Amino acid sequence: MTALGKLLRTTAFRLALAYLVVFAALSMVVLGYVSWHANALIAGQLNATVNAEITGLAEQYRQGGIRKLVAVVDERSNRSPGGSLYLLTTFSGEVLAGNVSAAPAASLAEAGEREIPYQRTGETTTAPYPAVVRVFLLPGGYRLLVGRDTEERERLSAVIANAVQWSLALVVVLGLAGGVFVAKRVLKRLDAMTETSRTIMAGDLSGRLAVTGSDDEFDRLAQATNAMLDRINELMAGLKEVSDNIAHDLKTPLTRLRNRAEAALRTATGEEEWRVAMEQVIAESEGMIRIFDALLLIARAESGGARGQIAEVDVAEVARGVVELYEPLAEERGARLTVEALGQIRVLGNRELIGQVVANLVENALNYGTTDGRPGEVTVSALALGADARLVVADRGPGIPPQDRSRAMERFVRLDTSRSRPGSGLGLALASAVARLHGGALTLEDNAPGLRATLTLPRAADAVLAAAETPKLASPRPAAAE
Amino acid sequence: MTSAMKLLIIEDDREAAAYVVKAFSEAGHVADHAVDGLDGYARATEQTYDVLVVDRMLPKLDGLSLIGRLRAEGAKTPVLILSALGQVDDRVQGLRAGGDDYLTKPYAFAELLARVEALARRGGPAAAETVYRVGDLELDRMSHTITRAGQDIPLQPREFRLLEYLMRNAGQVVTRTMLLENVWDYHFDPQTNVIDVHVSRLRSKIDKGFDKPLLHTVRGAGYMIRDGAR
């Protein structure tokens, strides 16, 4: 019962039912039209036949009077047992000639066309047949009846009615069967999909909907759903990795913070010692806040949430600005920081994020891009290459070995060489996330020697157009970075 | 240094609010506390405050809507938004909603104090002056010249803007992030001491060779330019 109820509630079944009703109605209309026209046609034929008879009889009557008419009617009555009907009577109703035995007297009283029941001469046992007749009043009180059996018409009507019944029955049966078949097929696949979805919802994210390979709408739905599940899986894996890393990399400073506080409680005596301990605790917590901020920013950038503040950004200006900001610091550390960024290179993006990424890369280069004993040498350049804008931060330090480069862009990865130096291990991950947010990429290359980090961003569309029209910038200003 | 300010802290975390109210009173200011958006809105419309400190996520009426209502009624009281959300977009949203400054949690109280004091002073007379004076140091905003004891001091354009910002807030603590925001227009937190290096460069230009230093480092907070004699 529930299975039937389910079947009846399916969209497929309801659709099939609706089509069935429409088709049945349509076949009714067609058959009705056909039968109406066939009837009209047959009636026309009957009329024509009767008219021809009458024309012939009228001719005979004109030539030979009533005598001739009686002879002709007699002759025709005997000639055609199936076809036409004739009856010639006197005024009183006495039959002179004809093949109709029992015609109602009233039907002969007046001239005109009518339908009457009749019986043939010699046939008494059968029931009267219907016929179309025409009655004429002749001079001398004679009455002539000429008619035609309408049995053919009746038979045709019966055939049509039969056809209507059968076809209707056929339409209903086939339609119902088709509806049930389609609905069952659809139900089966939908049920399979629902079942798989349930197991996936229950936690088994590895489940996938079956794809039959027929490339129908169910297959396409299954494929899209599977692609969505793959994406969800990826995100979940990423989330798990991040939470593992967060657990590790935030617990480390938390432990340090706790240890410091405990040590201070245990051993600190004077106010100065308390103060130092408190300051260390604050510094430690600030480091953690920084990690949090970076993580949040990466998460927002990766989910596309930070795209909100999109405007035209001149990355050449960003490069000059960041270098100007860091140049005194570089000088203090005995490093050389130079910029190569001419004119304007516009991209659509978030100036804050791009600026922060370039600043991170410069800080990285200043922190790690030095080989002991040699002064650091960091170059920031901005250039336009076709449809791309490139921001390059290059140093002459030890660089990153090729096998470690893609790993270096993951969150919290700190290569062994940099573990001893300060840093959260999020700088390159953030740079990479921001690049992807802008539809670009971060690439790490060998600067022979040193590291060359390139942030590739798509240029603003109209900027590319303008550059194509005027290949050379009118007057590139030299970078103003001391 | 500054005259006492009257502040309204709209913050649903009572403990955090109590700490901030106490810290403000230690700094010589008077701070009221409202626990939710509607309470805060009522107080802000009934009384006059110098600065409102509004948490972004509040019960009953959220921070941005509250600011929106006040601004719609023509209230010009400076508003500092406190938010755990932080980051680029949220800041822009907050400022667009009518906030005047934005600070992300967790923050150092020194940062909050410096920013609130800067907001209270913003509409003050210093903003309109063309010549800033601190002791014998003079900065002319029209001619872009700096003199100390009558002696010309040449500065790079960025150093000029740095000094200009410090002098506009003379006698007040200015934090590193305030400098980065107002002089460089970046809102991130540099992991290195870039700002310190810029300030010490500036200091070597305006203080070196003069017996009285004007540009002071305020430990744990930032910098302040003032005439030490006062």
Automatic annotation (TrEMBL), chain A:
Any Gene Ontology CC annotation: plasma membrane
Pfam families, per the entry: HAMP, HATPase_c, HisKA
Entries under SUPFAM superfamilies matching the protein: ATPase domain of HSP90 chaperone/DNA topoisomerase II/histidine kinase, HAMP domain-like, Homodimeric domain of signal transducing histidine kinase
Keyword Phosphoprotein assigned: yes
Residues of the HAMP domain: 184-237
Enzyme class: transferase
Domain Histidine kinase residue range list: 245-461
Compartments where found: Membrane
EC number of the protein: 2.7.13.3
Protein name in UniProt: histidine kinase
Organism: Hansschlegelia plantiphila
